[in-house]
Write the structure tokens for this entry.
Amino acid sequence: MYAILPNGYLMNSCCEPKFADNCRIATAYKDGCQAQIMKFLENNFKIIGGIAVAAGVAEVAAIALIVVAVKVKSNNGGIEIMSVTSFAIGVAVLVALVAFFGCCGAVKESSCMLTTYAAILITLFIIQVVLGVIAFVAVKNGDKQLKDLISTQLNELYQNKQKSGNQETIDTLQKGLECCGTTGPSDPLAYNSTTGALLNSCCKAETACTIANSYSHGCIEKLEDFLPTYFKAIGGIAIGFSVIELVAALFACYVKKTSKY
């Protein structure tokens, strides 16, 4: 149905530029906007699916940043570090699974694969929206709880720095955030328990590290500033990418319903 104006002409945008000033049914585009949009989406379904998968990869990378590639948890007087390799393998399997069902479903014209692909994306959409909301709420309402958790975990980490892997984690943390000890270079935990010297990672130049040339801020303070900002970023990323995944899932359902699949 054409969008005819009261003067009997069509809207200028319904015709090519050369006919815009005298746009009539005879010179107007033949297809409606809905048909053109559906045709575009159907023809570009694979690209949209690829964008959804890429968005998932980017989101996982962002989440990996917020956990700083390691998960620290209490373990009866010690610290246990979850293997980064295990985390990476799990992520790779999930991304490969989603990509497999989306790409193969379109190429092989498989109704089952397209349905599975859509179901996975819708599930991820729901999870990501929930996680995004939780991230925003946690930053808004759980500030004290977050600070207490940071303080407890970092103190435990520094107190057990002689355990395997903990010193490397501390060095990575101090270099990345440019901090020293839990509260600053005056913190006794910022010193090597064997030599009594300040940890080398407390300074930008790791040779002859002293209080005079060390980072002045403690890691608790730095993390308290760092994490809320990135929780907000992760919340926004999760919700933003979830919209892309929902759109891709709806297109998968549309293609399945309207084609020979």
Observations:
- Residues 64-85 have pLDDT under 50 and may be disordered.
- DSSP finds seven helices and two strands in the chain.
